[in-house]
Amino acid sequence: MTTFHLHLVSDATGETVTAVARACMVQFEEIQAVQHNWWLVRSQGQVERVVAGIEENPGIVLFTLVDPGVRVLLEEACRRLKIPCIPVLDPVLAVLAGHLGATMQALPGRQYQLDAEYFARIDAMQFTLAHDDGQLLDDLDEADIVVVGVSRTSKTPTCMYLANRGFKCANYPLVPGVPLPPELEAARRPLVVGLTKDPKSLSDIRRARLRFLNHDEDADYAQFEKVREEVASARKLFSRHGWAVVDVTRRSIEEASATIIQLHAQHHAKREGGG
């Protein structure tokens, strides 16, 4: 495995440059980055500390700095050190500015300002936390998305990811022999999504969970045949109610959530159009 130093520099939280770096590095199987994170870099003194770190561990620099005075200090230092320095947002900003005929405003961290969208996202996260695992069903119809599924199908983490995107979510666990609550069957406003998973994979995950809790791994909860029946019963339930189904067997939470967001857009458009 070949390793190298990778310096990620941002004037905000570093989410953008980290996502870009991750998306690029997964394409190189035999290369591993030793990552150095430099967040909230907005002054000369902060840039000087970054440069000192780069001098100590020379490597490629990826940055998202919009303040011209700050970024020029970093670029000049990298030129002096003969180190690649890549402004990951520049190509997109240049095309947008040219196409729109507009001038960019160099305001660090502007995407994180406390605006209405920010507070809506906070409300969504609070709603989602309060409606986790079948709690507070009385106002279920106020949700944007309701996630339903058997145990260990990633309902809670999926809902939390969606909440961070601004969607009010609730999730309800399907338990063998327990009927659906009337509030869920009566819900009309939210998109209801059933999560499913390959029974073998789900059985393995449940066994690992029981092992972690020092419980009997051979309990019905994790036995393959029982799990297979549980998954099949859940799929019949989803079909009977006409709920969308997302198979999370080989999908990350981000990929499953992206599919759910698309389904929600279709659901919302259909509802608004009266279809």
| Helical segment count | 10
Q: What is the radius of gyration?
A: 24 Å
Compute the separation of the termini in Å. 55 Å
CATH class of the largest domain: Alpha Beta
Sheet with the most strands? 4 strands, parallel
Task: Name the CATH superfamily classification of the largest domain.
Answer: P-loop containing nucleotide triphosphate hydrolases
CATH architecture of the largest domain: 3-Layer(aba) Sandwich
Give the helix level as a range of percent: 40-55%
Strand neighbour order, sheet with most strands: 2-1-3-4
Which fold name is given in CATH as the topology of the largest domain?
Rossmann fold
Number of strands: 8
What integer is the average pLDDT? 92
SSE string, helices as H and strands as E: EHEHEHEHHEHEHEHHEH
Tell me the structural class. alpha/beta
Strand content: 15-25%
Envelope shape = globular
Structurally, how many domains make up the residues? 2
The low-confidence parts are none
In short:
This protein has 275 residues and is an alpha/beta fold.
What does this structure look like?
By secondary structure, this protein is α/β, with parallel strands linked by helices. The protein has two domains: 2-110, Rossmann fold (3-Layer(aba) Sandwich), CATH 3.40.50; 116-272, P-loop containing nucleotide triphosphate hydrolases (Rossmann fold, 3-Layer(aba) Sandwich), CATH 3.40.50. Helix content is 48%, strand content 17%. It contains ten helices and eight strands. It has helices spanning 15-25, 44-56, 68-81, 90-100, 116-130, 155-164, 182-186, 199-212, 224-241, 253-272, and strands spanning 2-10, 31-38, 59-64, 85-87, 145-150, 169-174, 191-196, 244-247. The protein has a four-stranded parallel β-sheet with strand order 2-1-3-4, with helices on both faces. The protein has a four-stranded parallel β-sheet with strand order 6-5-7-8, with helices on both faces. α5 (116-130) runs antiparallel to α6 (155-164) and α8 (199-212) packs across α9 (224-241). The protein is globular and about 70 Å long. The mean pLDDT is 92.
